Task: structure prediction
Amino acid sequence: MGELVQLTSFGLTEGEVLGALGRVKVRDVDYADLYFESCVSESVSMEESLVKRATKSVSQGVGVRATAGEKTGFAYSDELTKTALELAADTARYIANSPSGDGQVSVPVNQRPTRNLYPIERAQAEVATVDRVSLLNAIDVEARRYDSRIKNVMASFNTEYKVVVVATSDGLIIGDLQPLSRLQVTCIAEENGQRQAGSFGGGGRVGFEFYHEGDRHLRFAREAAREAILNLSAVEAPAGVMPVVLGGGWPGILLHEAIGHGLEADFNRKKTSAFSQLLGKRVASDVCTIVDDGTLPGRRGSLNMDDEGTPTGRTVLIERGILRGYITDKLNARLMGIPVTGNGRRESYQSVVLPRMTNTFMLAGASDPDEIIRSVDRGLYAVSFGGGQVDITNGKFVFSASEAYMIEGGKVTRPVKGATLIGSGPEILTKVSMVGHDLKLDEGIGTCGKDGQSVPVGVGLPTIRIDEITVGGTQE
Amino acid sequence: MNQSIQQRDGYSQLAKDLLVKAKRSGATEADIIIADGETFSVQVRLGSVDRLTKAREKHLGLRVFVGKRSASTSTSDFSVDSLDQLVLETCNLAKAVVEDQVSGLPEAGQMAGKWPDLDLYDSTKLTTEQQIELAKRVEAAAMSMDERVTNSEGADFDSSSGRVVLGNSHGFLGEYQSSSFSMSVSPVATDSQTGAMQRDSWYAIQRKFAKLDSPEAVGLEAARRTVRKLGARKIATQRVPVVFDSEMAGSLMENLCSAVSGYSLYKGASFLAGQLDKPLAPEHVTVYDDGQVVGGLGSRPFDGEGLPTRKTTVVQRGVLKSYLLDTYSGRKLGLASTGNASRSVGENPSVGPTNFYLVPGARTADEIIQTVKQGLYVTDLIGFGINMVTGDYSRGAAGFWIEGGELAYPVEEITIAANLKDMFAGIEMVGSDLMFRGRIASPTVKIAEMMVAGN
Result:
């Protein structure tokens, strides 16, 4: 069971909150909710072997929302007082065109989520600054020991601790404690006046001990250093259409960009997604099954409940190549007449709820990863990526490799410089001909942007072969 | 009105009080930033209101130095107890990090004394009904231009205003107000034969309401940009000249801006490290960063550390003449701050542009396109395929194929790649069409050659 979070932790009584909810849930309002959030985030960072920066931010506030038909009225305030709540409620219900609010809402029972995917004591989330500092110092030493060509190591450790309570007009008051942390390392390597960078990182809804398990922090340091050194010898990447093998884990960003965004319900309700007419149709080869799963313990994209109080779930997006479902929030599920999947998320009390991904990954297949590489005569093997982006409407997506190699005659040969891969979302997965048995989830670094809102997400992928995709290198 | 003046004076006093408390808690130097503002945003879709958002918010950021150690904190809770606690915590946090020899406030003598009124604030208050009407008009214009415009992602009208109070333990205390008004629309067009959809958008943003383009002009331009993408195809992989439209050329200026940021430079994380006073581009390329443009979207009377803003020549006739620096990154590089400290509450200062732009040339965009026999006109770029350490550049692109000096047909699902150093050196022509729609702007730019990857 998750924690029972009391409204009193926001200095408000249940009566005041119900009063505001009644004020906003006027006759023509279909649904209303109040989202209370307090967030403490802390960061320490190191460069030039010195941990010289520490920051801490505290924010709290409430977002008040009313939906009527397709309309959303939204107001937020960093003042948690009865007056501020009433003012926000009056703004939010403006869209309903109804006179003064005195709606009745049933008195909800304060509930707790039915599970706890991240059972971390607050004491653990609040790590002493001195311990953060020694974590970063150890990373600096390890990265420089890896290779003397490593000239600078930049690392940061960020933690965030959110307390949220959602009070809804459908009779729910429910809260959650949401810890999140991330360790990020970037190394700069230099040789003969040439410089290169390598990055690695990870984290999740985990305690501080996570970073020391099996010396995970030192592995992150070595991986960042290894990528920087490797890229010193990387040659120009090829340009044009060719087979590409994606390694497991973080390359799952392909699914996030190519498929995931296009299956968010809002774009499909508005029929502006390239996937709008494709439910039940083939959008991938039959070796592809893709899910969005917010219920994986400790994962960066996981949540006990979404930001509308709905328990997160596991939604099958593509089953053996057939498009099965969209990911939804309450508004879009209601308007489309489809199930609520627990994907209603918001960056903070200052932003509206949108349907968003949690952890998106492809299930393991039957192929041996080595065999997948052997099957390629000339192509690219990409194992790590920077960011990606998609145009929802025409379906074109990109993602950019940060560690990649040529495959020549079935063997992985020279490292090549990063290149952007570009494809079309509804087509690309029909070109996946082999799926490895080695499903891996990413280390926990993903942040997804949509409508100016950032939320933490996860991705995962087994090794896969894409028969053809355009590689944006510089060499013919 | 009286109330807001009281509150404003209250913030100055609050800043002074907290600086005194910080000193009492062991800080040798400190600065404090208080920002508050209100935003009102309307989104309509297909003629109906889709979303209304209204908010007031405030934040306070405190940075303290205990000798050569420093820490920063922020809060939105302005209660006395909470702020007292914040001061203590910030000082304790600073004591937990190591000494950094170049840390500290700017020298007292460098602080901005007097500053001009840059006319950044417009007191116009629009009613909810007015904003809804404006958003509806911009969308209606976009929907009515061409029957191939079949759908809409919505149109927005946003207005916001706010003020910044900045004070430090040298006795500097400054404040200014600013506002912005903006509208945008994202129409969707459908190809009636294939059913394929394309989306684009257009927007206008100004500090003064009266200076905004008409909703009709914005809507028509959005529709024009969307419809012309219908029927886009891939092209063969080849090396050709590439013309960036002014929006996309602006993204090249953003790349330049990141590469000349003091923080990237001293960390060795920029491909322009060590390039000061060396040629970067041909003679017809001059780039300025000007913080004192009256009414400019990137203008501010003083920077995030209280230093006066100014006009900096970044590139003069092709030669890299200046980096963009704040106090810290300047000291790391042995150079003086250029007044480019940018401060988001709760973060340490970083470097940011003010109004950063490529000086326009004489040719129109059409005249530049006419010089290309075969090449690409880029109107969209997606993805993050830029390695700032090496300058390697590879991004997803869409636009038009140029055939015999004319736009022949739309293209998509291609990438363009080169190295930024070669791209800047290869700027063959600079257009005359400079327009500010943000802090960074550029006219149309023609680059001699890039690799285009397609089929």
User: Anything to note?
Assistant: The longest strand of chain A covers residues 172-191. The mean pLDDT of chain A is 92. Chain A touches chain B through 79 residues (CB under 8 Å).
